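User: I'm writing a tutorial on reading structure tokens. Could you give me a worked example: one chain, its sequence, then its tokens, then a sentence or two explaining what the tokens reveal?
Assistant: Sure. Here is the example chain.
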Amino acid sequence: MMIGGFSHIPYATFALALAPIAAVGLVITAALIALVYWSEFTGDTRLEAPRPRGVVVNRVLVIRAVAATLVMIALFFFGVIPAKAAIIIGGLLLLTRRVKSRRVYADIDWSLLLMFAGLFIIVAGAQHALLTSDVVAAVGRLHLDQIPILTAVTAVLSNLVSNVPAVLMLKPFVAALPDHDKAWLTIAMASTLAGNFTVLGSIANLIVVQRAEASGVTISFWDYFRVGAPLTLITLALGTLWLSR
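And here are its predicted structure tokens:
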């Protein structure tokens, strides 16, 4: 999302370039999970989700939400800025008397929003303090205009500081590259896929592990790494080949 705003690459162009990588990556993910944890899929134990009790479905709100989602996606493809389209559609959905606003606000993860706000502040401070002229010159000598090198640098940085800060830190270096769109697509691909390497590689991973723990399921660093490491290496290689074609 940040790269879409930074690069001004049209939504359709972005999707056309990276959707094939995402689709292949999903297939590889399912295959690796099934291979590594084969015993859990072949055993006699069946996992059954508890049946929700007392759930009332408001059909009108469901129809409105689905229609709003389809309109929002259409706006993306028609060139409307994604952030603008999302906030407008979200605001319109809140205009209802069927659900009180306080119920919506009660479901917002405020601690997560606070963490993101703090993360952006820390990264901005690091940019001003650490990205000196010598550092910029040293990074410039890494030949980031070559897709394999840019992929590797993005992947390593994403696992050191997480993928969102990595994108912010790489932003100043993209301006000097000859093909901005290709560079941004490469960073988008590499930073996203590199987040799969370890459980610490992406904030989304941490959220999943936290929610799993709350549900009584413990995902250790090694449990995740057994699938995440090979998945990352394979998909990064395929993504590099795809964007280098």
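What the tokens reveal: The chain has a mean pLDDT of 84. Residues 109-243 form one domain.
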